[in-house]
Specification:
The chain has 175 residues and is of the alpha+beta class. The chain is built from 2 helices and 9 strands, in the order ββββββαβββα. The strands form 3 sheets. Strands 6-3-8-7 form a 4-stranded mixed beta sheet, with helices on both faces.
């Protein structure tokens, strides 16, 4: 179910709506209040250590519990994608990043508590500062350092992450 389909009452005046919004705009039948629905923003990084291996976490929670993912998460309000990726990497694996470079963005869907949220994922590449300090923290069951070309797409948590990894691997191959 899309987030907009949960709006049966106006968040401003409380008026019951004849029909929940079908698209990306909610307009109240009573007071005319308008609310635009858009994607949530998330960020992740393919973090390399000096030997070229890349950090992957194993997700501790649903959705995609047990699957591999580059560390990352949702961007906070007022936060840039770069600041968000730095914060998320610190929260999930305790690492600092250097040489952060934008890689690509990919659309995604995130199913949580009976709602499917549209998400725009921003992917970066980066180098780990003190890679030996990595540890499994917030929402991380474990982590591993892998050759990106050897990771099976079937092991990756979300389609957006599979697409970003494939894009990056191809980009590395062409260089």
């Amino acid at each position: 179910m899309r987030p907009s389909q949960h709006f049966h009452h106006c968040p401003r005046c409380g008026a019951r709506q004849a029909n929940p919004p079908a698209g990306n705009v909610f307009t109240c039948d009573g007071c005319g209040f308008t609310l635009y629905f858009s994607s949530a923003n998330a960020t992740a990084a393919f973090v390399q250590r000096d030997d070229g291996k890349v950090l992957f976490i194993r997700r501790a929670k649903e959705p995609a519990k047990g699957k591999l993912a580059p560390p990352g998460g949702f961007i906070d309000v007022g936060e840039t994608a770069e600041a968000g990726v730095r914060r998320e990497i610190r929260e999930e694996v305790g690492l600092e990043l250097a040489d952060i470079q934008f890689l690509c963005s990919q659309p995604n869907s995130y199913f949580y508590k009976d709602v499917t949220y549209p998400v725009l994922d921003f992917f970066f590449t980066a180098r780990a500062v003190a890679a030996d300090n990595a540890r499994a923290l917030d929402d991380v069951a474990s982590f591993c350092w892998l050759e990106p070309e050897q990771v099976s797409p079937d092991d990756i948590a979300f389609p957006s992450m599979r697409a970003a990894l494939a894009f990056w691997v191809e980009k590395r191959r062409v260089k």
